[in-house]
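Bench log. Compound arrived from synthesis this morning; before running ITC I wanted a structural hypothesis for how NDP sits in the protein. Inputs:
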Amino acid sequence: SERNPNQPEFIQAVHEVAETIIPFIEENPKYKNKMLLERMVEPERVVMFRITWIDDQGNIQVNKGYRIQMNSAIGPYKGGLRFHPSVDLSILKFLAFEQVFKNSLTTLPMGGGKGGSDFNPKGKSDNEVMRFCQSFITELYRHIGPNTDVPAGDIGVGGREVGYMFGQYKRIQNEFTGILTGKGISFGGSLIRPEATGYGNVYFAENMLQTKNDSLKGKTVLVSGSGNVAQYATEKATELGAKVLTMSDSGGYIYDEDGIDQHKLAFVMELKNERRGRISEYVEEYPNAVYHEGKTPWGEKAAIALPCATQNELHEEDAKKLVQNGCILVGEGANMPCTPDAVDVFKKAKIFFSPGKASNAGGVATSGLEMSQNSLRLNWSAEKVDDKLKTIMKDIHDACVTYGKEDNGYIDYVKGANIAGFVKVADAMLAQGAV
Ligand code: NDP
């Protein structure tokens, strides 16, 4: 923490990994005294830049832009761009660090990176968002490339923003290439990419339950968030026979005791993706549901919790309530949504808990599949991509079991994911020498 003052999220993420990796390094002589963890916590490169753009009133606006190129041992840097007022070095370094392990777990050749801006897309017009994205890429383009660094979406960056950034990159470079993932289908995007993170999280949960011959069918589920990950986690959980009771946004959460079925979810998608409205509007459309302002859904009773909004959104007290209410599985859809104290509660209660770097890896895995399709200049069918996604999530699950199973039979998915992710990157770094 002396080397990285004022970076609490980054230190939290490193601490969580170090706890399981340091004992593993001590037990495995080939990794000892190679400064592997020390190297991994230092980004290979950090780019920080100014973004200026003109708002609809003709005023010049200024934002901060970043790209963290964390680790390229096993492939080009890969990771999303986040546009949110809270974005700073600490948040992006935590995300980039996690991304290195996550991408390693996917089995695909991708290094780790992350970037974004403190730009707040809320309340901005379509033209303002476009001008901002163009300005962002006008600087970032020189630092990225299909064999160097391939960004994607994250909070505040969806299909619209990726499209604007792709257009600007192509205009500057005069080159049609897979420089970003999460693109529209008509210009190189992959089917199932929008769905992949949420679907993958649910596939991972199903894999965990299967270790006890159980399944999602008939289970009640709490989802937080109502963005990309939350929407498709809700869709897949419902499809597999579960009943999703809640969704949320930064204003509060809605509880629908009848379940958020496909029809209601279509309303949420239109509300959030097209009208860019608030989740509170759900109860105007479906008066049986209740809106809880300023609260998160973790006080409600359900078998499964899928936090899909943002980091540190589920605290120790929330974890205790979930366990008391009979929750048997927590699957992180967001990155680091559960605080370390909350994770401890789940581990002590011996319920299923999957860290985001394992259970939300389906998004970046499918981005990897988008890169493959772009290189091949081919488009795979939805079934083919979905099948590959299912296989990858199962492989990640099984790797976590291999490295995380304890003598008493309990599977520590945190430890499993950290070690499985570490081994591949560490081996590549060792082979490539002191770089
Ligand atoms: P979106 O922007 O689509 O949605 C984010 C959701 O979380 C919104 O409902 C938003 O509410 C809520 N939210 C964001 N910030 C906060 C906050 N500070 N407090 C409370 N609620 C908040 O993002 P995604 O769905 O893409 O991302 C969600 C999480 O999943 C993030 O942690 C992201 O890093 C992670 N993730 C995403 C992947 C992807 O493929 N998209 C891949 C892997 C991980 P509001 O509308 O009010 O802001």
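What the model suggests: The chain has 15 helices and twelve strands. The two ends are 23 Å apart (CA to CA).
ITC booked for Thursday regardless.
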